[in-house]
User: Fold these one by one.
Assistant:
Number 1:
Amino acid sequence: MSKSQKHEFQAETKQVLDIVVNSLYKDKEIFVRELISNASDALEKLRRTQLTEKDILDENLELEINLNTDDTTNQLIIQDFGIGMTEEELVKNLGTIAHSGSKEFLEALKQDGEKNDALIGKFGVGFYSVFMVADSVEVYSRSWQKKGKGYCWKSDGGGTYEIDEIDGQRRGTKIVIKLKEDFTDYAKEDRVKDIVKKYSAFVQFPVSVNGEKVNTVDAIWLKSKSEVTEEEYEEFYKFQGNDYEGPLMRMHFSADAPLEINSLLFVPKRNMEKMGMMRNENKVALHCRKVLIDAEPKNLFPEWLRFLRGVVDSSDLPLNVSRETMQDSELLRKLNQVLTKRFIRFLTEQSNKQEDTYLEFWKEFGPLIKEGVATDFTYKDDLSKLLLFESTALEPGKLTGLDAYVDRMASDQKEILFLFGKSRKSIEAGPYLEALRARSLEVLLLTEPVDEYVMQSVREFKDLKVISADSEDLKLEKLDDQPEGEALDKKSLKKLCKWLKEKLKDRLSDVEEGERLIESPVCVVGSDAMGGASARRIMKMMQGPDDEMPAQTVKLQINPRNGIIRGLSSMIDKDEDTALLVSNQLIDNALASANLLDDPREMIARSYQALEKITA
Ligand code: ADP
Ligand code: MG
């Protein structure tokens, strides 16, 4: 055995070591991930070498990674039978910073000052992370070449390291970690197993802890679609997504530009949020060449895609990035962009080609798509195409999207129309639909409280305004055939309007003849501007049940052909009290039809007065 060689760490390495140990990672446990990742790289390199070289040391050793814990001596050992290192390589790889990532890191450090943590995380400093937890580290290594020897590299992470020549070393690398007193946890079998499961479940080589194999699933997202069976996809999803049943949809997607991405995304069958159980948390794990970077990265997808499960793997990611830094990195933003766009495209395809599956998706996750429309301006237009509603053009229960609505529209129609109500039946019974029916205009029927808010966000679709059919802004053409029935003469109509406006000025901002009324006596119309009917309903939806709504005045349209209106017209001179009672009741009814009646108590009291009059 030759005598021990003492070496100084390269000055820059010392600097890096110092920073890594003191400030880089909050999660100390990731040193296990780093070492396994290095072992996995070493095995991968050996595998590639085997393709071209014949003379390989210990040809029959398994390509696997073994961890051993000893909680009596507080040691953790990580061993691989990979490519190994020569003496030269030990010096170069572990004593200097040769790889470009760390070089860049130091360059950037020089410019930005020493304690810039955000900067630190962007660059690779993997192996040195072991010194966060180690008193001393021994790296036993032997290169794959038969002529070489074995060496032991040793350091306590201070300024120096030693290298000894040793006998009896097999191919590959064994790292013996003597743990600091505070971190003896990492010498416990269960703890280490948990960490390995968490970070390395999909490392492509077998990983064992104290002889027991821990990782079971391989990186199917890196394979091509034709290489993966349905069962494998399903098994992987269940394992990764923690689900007892298979997924509803999956998207297996790879790209080379602008980023290298391999991703496998799943939509679960059920939306936990919908069942009121809990809020979905993004569970798409971020990997770099099979090694887990972050199991639940925060900004990989927009909020409204929080139901997704699966894996995103990008070799453009720096492996040693800290979670905090990752979350606001430029790279993550780009990944987010590419993946979100691609997933929306996938959903759009599904909605066209796999209608049944898409419908199931919509039933579960529709609320989240709506949330996207309402909150994420970037994707609003694309997401609008994914919305589905009931419609007067379709039988109950059937749904249509906005594209299909536009396809059905007459060429002179200028708006996409919708009406909100508690149910399809209640909208159909209301006063608004009749005028639109008479003009053969299709109306989307919105029955979820958030729908109206969503439509206000959509606002325009393919250059067409999207508006509520009870909006003032909707201008209806005069009907060619006037509706049947005798109508009030112009003079009486004008007088009635004036009377109503005067007597009920607390409740009415305006009164006019209603071009949209066929059967019903009255309806209210609102402006879509703030304070209009839509806005008021949205406000109501957002308020608590006991909150007082501010007083409202509405615009009333009256139907001169309706019997009640004609009767009212002749009553105003003869019996003003009753006329007022009837008018108030008409306004209440119109408000109720528009879902704008704030409190039914007054209306009930009034209707008793009316009943009293009738029965007197
Ligand atoms: P990186 O993995 O980003 O290159 P690390 O600090 O993790 O940086 O490792 C530095 C270098 O040390 C590696 O590039 C590799 O050449 C060498 N190395 C580390 N661990 C092993 C190992 N188990 N087997 C062979 N080489 C290794
Ligand atoms: Mg590494």
Number 2:
Amino acid sequence: MLNFNKNEFIERRRQLLSKMQSNSICIVPSATLLTRSRDTEFSFRQDSYFHYLCGFPEPDAWLILSNSAEYRSGLCVLFCQGKDPSVEMWQGRRIGPRVAKRQFGFDIVFDIEDLDERLFELIDGHDQLYFALHEYPESEERILDCLAQLRSAPKQSQRAPASLVDSRVILDEMRLFKSTYEVNIMRRAAEISAQAHIKAMQFSQAGRFEYQLEAVLHHEFAMQGAKHPAYSTIVGCGDNACILHYTENSDELKAGDLVLIDAGCELQGYAADISRTFPVSGAFSAEQRELYQLVLDAQKAAFDCIEPNSSLSKANRVVIEVITTGLLELGLLQGSVAENIEHQHYKAFFMHGVSHWLGLDVHDVGNYKIDGRDRPLAPGMVLTIEPGIYIAHDAPVAKRWRGIGIRIEDNLLVTAEGHEVLTLGVPKEIEQIEALMKQSNLES
Ligand code: GLY
Ligand code: MN
Ligand code: MN
């Protein structure tokens, strides 16, 4: 188990304070519990920004930071739920202000019940207020009420910040570059997810159900210390694999079909995001093999683009070129490579982007362009490379190609030398997959 490192979070808060304009305050609310039905709630998931800055795991908390000259090294205040044995007996343990202060390194911790009373004096006198606008409507309303009150009391020499600044401009940029601490967690999340994919491949058999493969994945996540998937797991057999966000996972696996799994665990808030596609009963047909090898070749060509100063657009262009060329060779597109790319004919079979940032959110924050130009890759960025080909049951091509959906997705860290693939633990070469499944068929 990777340990919580308080200093990592203190350092992130210090960095944020140093990047804010002087005499500013920043407010970051936690997530709240969401009702699932009547009086039951969805399993709690902390807000990514809040988690990034303090690692505090409870709902109904606020983080408030100030770099006013009054506080030499910045002020870091947490509001959290107070201890209450009778509530805790029903709803679960609370850390409480006293322990929170020590364990998480805050300067002051107040009971959340005192928020309205203290918010006024905390905001008063700052020039800027940093907040993620429209992200937390209820908290925003409380803050705007407080600003209105401050503006209405100038005679008491109270002063509302003159400007509201979007805190995400600073935070997204910080989150895009992963520290060693973050990379270690993401490496582990990737390893666990890779092993879960192997288990799911080994479990695959005609007559079993998509949701049973999902259960195998989630079981392995949990057995290795990751309580939750990072996003809704996709297990799509045959034509279901052509629905990009297929999460029903309700169908029976059929011999002769491919099954596409897109699944990754969440570990200490960080996501892994792996896709693999394999034959239900262990052997690729000729058509499946051709298309699979094409997606794999496109992915490998994209990997070659992942290094400092390269760009995701370059990787995207390379994938489009390899896939278009391959589809022409297989007779699934007609004409020249150039005209197919110009008119985006490949989009009939490959309709999504090839990459996204990965981190606390599976589609993580961070700008993809800077001043309208491709952002150069740099060490510390973590991203996916995930080409695919999807030929739906009603596609206007020869019948033998239909009902095949393939995606191969890995997670890469950009390093000074090039990149490190975090998800090497799960096979993707055709022979490796067939060998793995043959072995598990023999054993079962
Ligand atoms: N699993 C979502 C994605 O691959 O982007
Ligand atoms: Mn992805
Ligand atoms: Mn994915």
